[in-house]
Amino acid sequence: SPARKFERSEEPVTYDDVAGLKSAKQDLQEIVEFLKNPKRFTKLGARIPKGVLLVGPPGTGKTLLARATAGEAGVPFFSINGSEFIQMFVGVGATRVRDLFKTAREASPCIIFIDEIDAVGRVRGAGVGGGHDEREQTLNQILSEMDGFEQTEAVIVIAATNRHDVLDPALLRPGRFDRHVTVDRPAREGRLGILKVHSKKVPLADDVDLEELAKATMGYSGAELQKLVNEAALKAAREEKRKVEMEDFYYAEDLIVMGARRDEQVDDEE
Ligand code: ATP
Q: Where's it found, cell-wise (predicted)?
């Protein structure tokens, strides 16, 4: 129904909540400035991208970064997930997209975030059925909404994917998602930053060495680092400690590494 509400984010987050990702933040700064004061740009005829694609592996902070961009600019944030549309009846996805853009225009300036855009935005016409499916209608609706709005409406669409190679080229055309921002797994300094952000409210024992943990967690995503801190805190709580100790972090690291191995085995069996 048209009255259906879209998720509007609760507590605002800012770039301070996003550790590392320096160049991604820099790339998005222009969007922040635009959303803060769209007229300053449109008066001079300066063109800001309508669509920005965040590209990177799962759990690297794409959603967080998009929310924080809205937070920095002080504008509303509306989000949907591309995978929501997969189970829908024909026409429902397109209607939902139309409602979303309508709501956003009325709240402009603002950000629309489409997570997992590849779920609807895969290259079209491939395979059986040849194309009038739900997914394609939804994608067409997204494209026509983006083509339809003027820059002066100050709605920026940010989409996230970890597979931009599978996206329909129509999505990447000028005036659509023509700006790409890479969101990589964090290097050591980034990992340290993420560990600091997530242990801010955790009482750490003196023996806890976050630098050491940052060194030992090569390949971890932000989401995995958050999990590391949380598992360590859970372990300490179960043992009724007053502070989280280094051994709790090592325990958590083992858990996560074993979990990852288990996932790999499942993959192998498939
Ligand atoms: P997915 O592709 O799975 O949707 P994503 O890239 O959108 O993942 P997020 O959902 O933003 O990742 O990240 C998951 C959680 O991991 C965040 O809520 C946050 O707590 C933590 N996280 C990830 N990256 C960072 C970061 N750079 N700084 C701080 N926290 C981070």
A: Cell membrane; Membrane
Residue 82 beta carbon below 6 angstroms from any ligand 1 atom: no
Annotated binding site: 56-63
Q: Is 168 in the pocket of ligand 1 (CB under 6 A)?
A: no
**Closest ligand 1 atom to the C-alpha of 223?**
16
Condensed to tens digits (0 to 9), the pLDDT of residues 153-172 reads 899 999 999 988 888 888 99
Annotated binding site for ATP: 56-63
- Residue 58 near ligand 1, beta carbon < 6 Å: yes
CA of 209 from ligand 1 middle (Å) equals 23
Residue nearest to atom 8 of ligand 1 (CA): 59
Contact 197 CB / ligand 1 (< 6 Å): yes
Q: In this predicted structure, what is the pLDDT of residue 267?
A: 52
Look up the pTM and report it: 0.86
Low-confidence winner among 8-12, 45-49, 212-216, 235-239 (lowest mean pLDDT)? 8-12
